[in-house]
């Protein structure tokens, strides 16, 4: 697939994932709190390099931006290689990210309750990442299709122009 389609798809999946997290955390006490998990991870990293940790509002914004950028890059991998497998790869990547969000925090020394608080939290965590992967792959496929259509139209116009120039010579 083309790189712009891959990046666009990855960005769509990352934004969808972030919106799901942000809306759900405001409506449901059992929602995954990946914002808190990310803020904790970022704070630890900042401490390790000896820098000053920003105030909570700025730390939240940095975390949100980092989440969108890293998830966009991750989800864009779904569009790499053969177009035929974009949706299965996006689905697999989403599921892998969701399971990683469940099992990696404790290993990394972070508070696992942000993604594992209840069974409902675990299911939401996994399903949100899964949806992000599916959305990323579907958008990438659609962007690729549109790019291909635009290229064909351009090629057709160029051929018409060449034919017109030949006929005038």
Distance between the termini: 39 Å
* Class of secondary structure makeup: mainly alpha
Number of helices: 6
- Helicity range of the residues? over 70%
**Oligomeric state as shown:** single chain
Low-confidence stretches: none
Q: Looking at the structure, what is the overall shape?
A: elongated
Gyration radius from CA atoms, angstroms: 21 Å
Bin the strand percentage: under 5%
Biggest pleated-sheet summary: none
Average pLDDT for all residues: 92
Explained architecture:
The chain is an all-alpha fold. It has one domain. The protein is 81% helix and 0% strand. It is built from 6 helices and no strands. It has helices at residues 3-27, 34-48, 56-76, 86-107, 113-116, 119-168. α1 runs antiparallel to α6, α2 packs across α3 (56-76) and α4 (86-107) runs antiparallel to α6. It is elongated, with a radius of gyration of 21 Å. 34% of the residues are buried.
